[in-house]
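Students often ask what a holo structure prediction actually looks like on paper. The answer is less mysterious than it sounds. You provide the chain, you provide the ligand, and the output is a string of discrete structure tokens encoding the 3D arrangement of the protein together with adenosine-5'-triphosphate.
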Amino acid sequence: MAKIETPQPIRGAQSLLGEEADRFHEVVAAFDRVRRLYGFKRVEVPLIEPTQVFARTMGETTDVVSKEMYSFDDRSGDSITLRPEFTAGICRAYLSEGWQRFVPLKVATHGAAFRYERPQKGRYRQFHQLDAEIIGAAEPQADVELLALGSQLLAELGIGAVTLKLNTLGDAESRDSWRSQLVEHFAAHRGELSEDSQERLEKNPLRILDSKDPRDRKFVETAPVMTPSAEAEDFFGKVRQGLDAAGVAYELDPHLVRGLDYYRHTAFEFVTDQLGAQGTVIAGGRYDGLVEQLGGPHTPAVGWAAGIERLAMMIDAPAIELIDAAIVVEDDVAMDSAWAAATRLRKAGLSVEIVASGSPRKRFDRAVKKGAREIIVLGAADGEVTRRVKSNDVPRVEALLA
Ligand code: ATP
Ligand code: MG
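The corresponding structure tokens follow.
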């Protein structure tokens, strides 16, 4: 018979066990605690959406849409895309599920996202994001609240080496005039830009500022910065005032733009220098134009997404969870008693492991190694089940089994 080959994983799709999985869930658990403190409701949205949901909102010329989406035709011939991010899908649901009546809608979620990128440390094809959005809120307070949420999350995770970088992209008017200045600036160096940026020059010059290509960097450094309109300046001033009052530190970065088309006003990233080129751990901003792109009414909104894997790499290893009790079955006669005891203890909320396999003489040592707080040894004498309890902690088991 031909040898069966072991399937390999999809490149850039990770499987986690033990400490790595614990770190991942520590990040998710912290997010879930903190989002409640800020009154964000949990939402669930599909992993698959019609391709148009992302193509229309994220902009046909963004890297994500032009190169990174996992799109395929399903059996009915409809083009479907695995979500590359949450925002567009949440806004689709906001419109199609009638969530407009809950405005301002403060929602949080987490889960997998997919992008066809070159896999490397901190960059995967299946990765996972935390996501927080406030939809239907025009006030700068919404931006402040989201940034405070991000900042508290990082603090609770014990991640200290992070800087909040902040910029304003202005309103439509100031953004348009900045756009022409950028075209003029970059067009003067057209031939020296990367191929991608030469293309961006035609379609969306702002995005050149986001380029990681070293050929573009020196022209990015000398690029003109945006002069916000009086209105945009006022909005940004209120965001900054709120951050100061809430005790959230930030640095202004006039060249910070977001890679996606729909951003206006506030744009931000929480960045660390600990993860090399993959240093952005939380990124987001205000996307007042997105819901309209989906055919909805004008709806101001702001949100962010964080890479769970990147945060997980930065936290201390979570403490190993001890089990409350191990039941060592020294004699098979005691097996039924072990099940009865385990059921009773687990129903009382204690974590229990039964050790009933392998050499009987080694079972007790294995229970010790598991770090059980209490060890119940079930043996047999004259056909009767015997019980000894060895306690390392408050003896809870005796009372429960009595
Ligand atoms: P980058 O500049 O690192 O490519 P991005 O601008 O594409 O990030 P966003 O679309 O803003 O990222 O996504 C928000 C966050 O999701 C990022 O800051 C990062 O933490 C995480 N993220 C994005 N792409 C990946 C990926 N391929 N693997 C792991 N995490 C990712
Ligand atoms: Mg990217």
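Residues 92 and 163 are 32 Å apart (CA to CA).
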